[in-house]
Write a structure and sequence with these properties.
This protein has a single domain, classed as Penicillin V Acylase, Chain A, CATH 3.60.60.10. It is 18% helix and 34% strand. The longest helix is centred in the middle third of the chain and has 18 residues. The strands form two sheets. A seven-stranded antiparallel beta sheet has the order 10-1-2-11-12-13-14, covered by helices on one side. It has 312 residues and is an alpha+beta fold. Helix 3 packs antiparallel against helix 4. It starts with a strand and ends in a 6-residue tail after the last strand.
Length: 312
């Protein structure tokens, strides 16, 4: 399923202000082969490894320019899914490899999106000219009646597995906590603790509080209520025999100096009892590179350098 919250502020300046903050949970079968976040072909992402001959699909990725793509599935009855539909996992890579603007890519995607099973696509594109930064946040859902991409102004947004105008209760709850957390940490620009901010953002993603019943969720699914209620929390954990739930937490911070921090905490070993699962954290810091059309020097901290995380 997955859930995502996004903040954009193109006017951010310096290391204590943030132009982009993205947090994401990936929900998936525990036994589906997956690799942890790593740089590959200019894209930082975890990857689906189910099919060795067609690997590399992902749920969230960022490139060296700070462009971001997140893919969420839409909750649908199994009877409405097409087993022959093309894989949705390559959509993220397709955008990041294309070099296209977010809106252009989304508009082109809308022309053949009906061939896929349900998805919600969130794209971020950024550019800078003469010190004027522009951040485009675009979302597109292929199960929406209007079938057009939505452009979002700077601010905070939540995205889930339903139409944006009909959010699940857990998306509303998570968005409220996201906004409160950012207000707490960003109100004093001179004293922002990145480790504390990351920990509080992780707390949102790890929240097991259920928000059920949920009429919108129930209207999109044929699952019985006793199962569906397990999907109504930000952190999802189905009963043990289903072996399905939240497998990774991803956090992306891009500050006003174009320095990016990417943190992924992922489930790397799942025994019979998911409560005993082994989690591992990857941490990357890198300076964003200018787009080919931009004329500005590369940030001083350029490079992709994983570092040990010591605050989790």
């Amino acid at each position: 399923m997955c859930i995502t919250f996004v903040y954009t502020n193109p006017d951010a300046k310096g290391p204590n202000q943030y132009q982009t903050i993205v947090i994401n949970n990936r929900d998936e079968k525990y036994d589906r082969p997956t690799s942890q976040a790593a740089w590959e072909d200019g894209i930082l992402a975890g990857r689906d490894e189910k099919n060795p001959n067609d690997r590399g699909g992902t749920w969230m990725g960022v490139d060296k320019f700070g462009r971001v793509a997140i893919l969420l599935s839409i909750l649908e009855p199994p009877s409405s899914e097409n087993p022959e539909a093309p894989s949705r996992g390559k959509i993220v890579n397709d955008y990041l490899e294309s070099g296209e603007s977010a809106i252009n890519f989304a508009e082109k995607m809308s022309m053949h999106a009906h061939t896929f099973n349900g998805f919600h696509l969130v794209l971020l594109d950024r550019s800078s000219l003469n010190d004027n930064r522009k951040i485009d946040l675009v979302s597109y859902m292929n199960r929406h009646s209007e079938n057009v991409p939505e452009i979002h102004e700077p601010g905070c947004y939540g995205f889930g597995n339903s139409p944006r105008d009909k959010p699940f209760h857990k998306v509303n709850y998570g968005l409220e906590r996201f906004e409160t957390t950012l207000a707490k940490h960003l109100e004093n620009n001179d004293r922002v603790s990145k480790p504390a901010l990351i920990n509080d953002l992780l707390d949102i993603l790890k929240c097991p509080k259920r928000h059920f019943p949920d009429a919108q969720m129930q209207s999109q699914s044929e699952q019985p209520s006793e199962l569906l209620r397990h999907l109504s929390s930000c952190f999802v954990q189905y009963p043990d025999d289903h072996r399905y739930g939240t497998r990774s937490h991803s956090i992306l911070l891009i500050d006003g100096d174009d320095q990016a921090t990417f943190v992924e905490a992922s489930m790397v070993s799942v025994p019979e009892n998911p409560e005993d699962a082994l989690w591992d954290t990857k941490y990357y810091e890198f300076g964003l590179e200018p787009r080919p059309s931009e004329n500005r020097p590369c940030p001083a901290k350029n490079g992709h350098s994983p570092a040990k995380v010591d605050w989790f």
